[in-house]
Amino acid sequence: MTTIAAPRPSQELAHEPVGEDVVFCGSDWRRVVRWHDATRLGTAAFWIDQARRRPRPATYQVGSGLHQEVALCLLGGYGITERMAYHAYRRLLDEQLLSGEPVDVETLREALARPFDLPGHPRPVRYRFPSLKAERLAGALEYLRENSPPSIAQPVPLRDWLTSLPGIGPKTASWVVRNVTRTNDVAVIDIHIRRAGVVAGVFDPTWKLPRDYRRFEEAFVTWAHVGGIPTADLDACIWSTLATMGRGARLMFGVATLGDLD
């Protein structure tokens, strides 16, 4: 067994460190990650291999500008499926409520409160939290109209700036920036990514969201870099796999309940 230091973003590894211990270092933390063979389920190498095999999309961006991408990401989140968020976004877009012109909270709330006809659902489906999301979205859109964000060429300052918008924390802000820039400098850390990283040995189990978001992000960016995979692609692979598996992910992780990892 050998131990090697994880390369800095400007450096490259000569080979993937299969069978070696890799030292991950952040601003105020250090972890030794065992880089198993990719056939070992749930390991750091396993997820890198899965991301390599997954088709890489041309872009993660859905909206035509920053304000539309902010709207899409704000409409998603806890308790709201990706498909539901997208249909809500499409309704607001089709009704010209994301044109960049001022829009009031009640107009947004009314649009979100109307039931949605989703393919595969026998009955109309209601969007959760229409009042809360309308209030946050109206505030975010107003802030974007009245203030100039950092350039998309500066992904980290842009992400940090976006956290000043109503209802946007580091995860949502990173989601927006990942979509519009495809940068390798930020990571979208949610409960799925946290669980996968803990099981893989990349994340310290004592780290908590959102308190330790920077630590999670530093470790995740290093993980992707060691594996030679774009950060966005590794994130998307883990998220989509675990979101699809649902509670079945506990079998992969070897736990009785997913809550055991939280």
Q: Briefly, what is this?
A:
With 262 residues, the chain is mainly α.
CA distance, first residue to last residue? 31 Å
Largest pleated sheet: 3 strands, mixed
**How many helices in DSSP terms?**
11
Mean pLDDT: 90
Structural class: mainly alpha
Identify the strand order in the major beta sheet. 1-2-3
Low-confidence stretches: none
**Helix and strand succession?**
EEEHHHHHHHHHHH
Radius of gyration: 19 Å
Quaternary structure state of the chains depicted:
single chain
Tally of domains? 2
| Fraction of residues in β-strands | 5-15%
Silhouette: globular
Helix amount: 40-55%
How many beta strands in the DSSP annotation? 3
Protein name: HhH-GPD domain-containing protein
GO molecular function: DNA-(apurinic or apyrimidinic site) endonuclease activity; hydrolase activity, hydrolyzing N-glycosyl compounds; lyase activity
Keywords: DNA damage, DNA repair, Glycosidase, Hydrolase, Lyase, Multifunctional enzyme
Organism: Actinotalea fermentans
